[in-house]
Amino acid sequence: MQFQKKPSKQSDKQKKYLRYVVDAELLSWKEGQLKCALIKKDEEMVCPVYNSVHLMSVLSELKKEPDFDMGSRFYSTGIFILDEYKTIAERLETLSREGSVRFGQSDPLPLVFRPLPGWLQDLEALYKSGFGSSFVPDVKERFPDLFAYQVEGASFFFKRNCRAWVADVMGLGKTAQACAALACSKPASAIIMCPSSLLKNWSLELGFWAGRDSQEDEKKSLLRNFVCAKNGKSVLTGHDIVSYSLVSGLLKNTPRKSLPKYDFAVLDESHFIKSRRALRTKAVMKITKHASKVLCLSGTPFSKPEDLFTQLRMLLPLKNSEFEFFPYLHNGRVTSSSKPLTDYFAVRYCSPELVFTGGPGRKEFMFKGQSRSQELNLVLSLVMIRRTKDLLPNLPPKVRSRVSLPGLSPSVSAFFSREIELLTKIREEKGSQAADCKLMQLVMKTCQYKEKSLKPWFNDVLFPEITSSQEKCIIFAHHHSVMDFVAGELDRLKLGFVKIDGRTKSGDRQALVKRFTEDTSLLFAVLGVQSAGTGLNFQVATQVVFAELTWNEKDMLQAEDRAHRIGVKSQVFIQYLCLENSTDDFMWRCIQRKINGVQKILNPNQKKNTSEKRKTSNTIDHHLMKIIKKN
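Now predict its structure.
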């Protein structure tokens, strides 16, 4: 849409939809910015703002000059320091009540002023006060074996008044930092919540770091007091290691008045509680509500801003009534709210979109987008510390590549094209759930055809290469059928391997990892992306192959770092196998987009990932783009 310096006279129909919007946004904890636009309904702006005489006269008193931002397509009134904000807000609120903003020669237009949320201003005051933290122990003196960045991470927890989020990338030793924080804080009671596959790993890590404590006898160390709760009948001792799957069960069987109150709560892989409505999340929130110290650990904290809300709500010192996700609704209608919509997390950072979900008149808001990335990065910086493997100069970089597997005949490619074209029609007539179900069927169909292409690539390329070099290799897959297929091929060729999937008992997994690490005849490990993608150490492997892609890029990034960890001395080569002209082509680009979106929030100054530059041009991608964008 073109912008005009002197817009023509608007018709009566157009006028009643126009409004003038002034949006306040933080750039740093010292500066903010006002962004202004004329908007028709909820569409793009239709006119520039510098003809608004009344507003510009107010801003001229504050010496603010208009400036057009090509990136956001907003006319900005300039940057202000936060000390000026109260004065600016009062003037704009007065204009908003008067409704006297005039656009050129037209009638006055209603002014909508979107101020900074009250909770955001409270966080700015918290930042200035230094979080009120007074006790920061000497972590390095107590645990001399920790790396410098690990000492910094444990100290950050105390500097943030014992409510923090260590979001280092996988392989940097977040568990070690949590053990140091636990030992130094000396809590009267503590609970560690983690995926069930990591229960044994936590027991081993706690025992290891108990022996590295320079100020406590190993046998008397607090870290030795932790006990694993392995089933729903386990008794909580006050120093417990509990899986997320058991948290809700343990609390459900305990009377409300008798619920245990822990002084310290550790949430490993904290992105497991990203869903606001899940029973697991509600159970965890009950525990952390009473804990004075909360430490979240996650190497892949989110894939979209919506995932951050529950974790931020646990960590930020804000009242639940102030910090809310969305003014909830029924059938797409927002319930009445006494505060501006931009006070809500979802409206401010998630770009909500109203979509048809199925049935007559069934519409719901989806929160898959992102906005105000720079401001959200500021909020995260209050509780989160994140480091990458650039801190380890001796750690070789990953080498990631994509392998295209041919194999689909023209008739099968045409089948995928026809079926995907129907998805748009299904979404419009039956809703998003029906379209998603159909899409998953197509993904399963891709899986079936992919097995035929995997066999020659494994037998002709991968297996001979690994057996000749005697390097160890991890093969990740998502579906049991693919893992069984790979295991069958290895068994047929009499090649040594271990296999860990969702059917493997938790207690057997560490033993299988040890076998793979120590037995030189075992060159292959067949692993499930979700069941073995976190908490296990396969750093002896130098080759990682993904036989399948998943929609969740966090799962694959976690899985990559089973091999790329502290102590690795040689490069780790990672290959993603994609079946040409199938849903794999689009999934690869979708994963790249998600990674770029996360980096935009966590590292605003980092350049965009450009590893995949090919344009979406074929028919399959064209129709998938329409469907997945709303997902």
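The first helix runs from residue 12 to 15.
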